[in-house]
Prior knowledge:
The protein is an all-alpha fold. Helix content is 69%, strand content 2%. The longest helix is centred in the middle third of the chain and has 45 residues, at 44-88.
Amino acid sequence: MFLYLMTLGKDWLNVHVPKDGCQAEARCGVRLPMKSSGPDPVDWQAELARERNRVAAERTLLAWIRASTIFISFGFGIDQGAVALQARFSETINPIRLGYLLGLAFVGLGTFTVAVAALDHWQEMQRLQQPEYQYTPRRTLGATVAWALLVIGVGAFVSIALKTAVLQRL
């Protein structure tokens, strides 16, 4: 039934139940399309594909919001851990700058991620509203975030390794 209605175009939205002699259709709730002299029928396959793309873009935005919230929370956690360690051991060790820098890096990464995800989502919505939607390949946000995490991880590793080497010499 749904496939039949899709073949009728948008006219199936403007329907009526016939009043004269067609009790089987009225009893079953089948509605017949009204004749219209309006614009050309809508390409339902294209419209459904456009709606699937819109919903996929919404899911993608929500996933990036979730990831950026995790990055920001992780950054605050690292920073607060550094503050707690500094308060506890302030007499025996120097201030822990690595914790501050790592926390700041993760908060910055989370903020950057949500900003770029929102911009990408807005651009995709603009493309979907165009009459002739065409796919355009773009650099993915996932790859950008992966490279940023790699830089943060290598920086943290090098900093910890250098700090450990300096402390062992003393």
